[in-house]
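To the wet lab folks,

You asked to see what we're planning to order before we commit. Fair enough. Below is the target structure as tokens, and below that is the sequence we designed to fit it. If anything looks off to you, flag it before the synthesis order goes out.
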């Protein structure tokens, strides 16, 4: 006897129950019991796996970061700042940096002595080996690491007789004169 097959949608899609009935008759639907073998459909992802996957994806997508800043202030303000040989602005200045370590800082201001110093930028606890991956990639917050330096510029040393412009011109003239 020929049989017609009817697809009845079941939640969640795209799963269907196939009901068989003789040709010419109307298939009847009956609620499936939980114990019925036909009601158990293999689902590749359970709801908990889907939620876990969505949470991991969200954490990776919205991963945190570390904002590193170096604030340099001087007395008097308005001095030019050179960090590792590159001009970075006038004080007070806030600079962002990517790597820790020792940096060369040069500060210049008119009518003041040039100041050269080395700054040691050491990493905080959350940037230690191993923890840095967890804090920058998996932790969905922004952590801040601020370093600051306050530098007092000194007046230039007084010029003595040997370094004044007029004195240098006189000494040059003496050297050019023929010796007897």
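Sequence we intend to order:
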């Amino acid at each position: 006897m020929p049989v017609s097959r009817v697809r009845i949608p079941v939640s969640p899609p795209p799963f269907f129950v196939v009901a068989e009935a003789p040709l010419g008759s109307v298939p009847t639907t009956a609620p499936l019991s939980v114990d019925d073998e036909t009601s158990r459909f293999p689902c590749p992802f359970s709801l908990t796996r889907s939620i876990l996957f969505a949470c991991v994806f969200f954490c990776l997508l919205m991963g945190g970061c570390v904002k590193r800043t170096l604030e340099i202030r001087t007395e008097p303000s308005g001095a030019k700042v050179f960090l590792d040989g590159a001009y970075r602005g006038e004080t007070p200045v806030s600079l962002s940096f990517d790597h820790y370590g020792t940096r060369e800082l040069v500060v210049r201001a008119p009518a003041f002595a040039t100041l050269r110093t080395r700054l040691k930028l050491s990493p905080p606890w959350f940037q230690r080996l191993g923890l840095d991956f967890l804090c920058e990639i998996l932790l969905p917050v922004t952590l801040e690491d601020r370093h600051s330096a306050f530098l007092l510029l000194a007046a230039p040393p007084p010029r003595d007789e040997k370094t004044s412009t007029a004195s240098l011109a006189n000494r040059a003239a003496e050297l050019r004169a023929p010796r007897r």
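Structural context that might help your review: Residues 47-61 form the longest helix (15 residues). Confidence is low (pLDDT under 50) at residues 32-39.

Thanks,
Computational group
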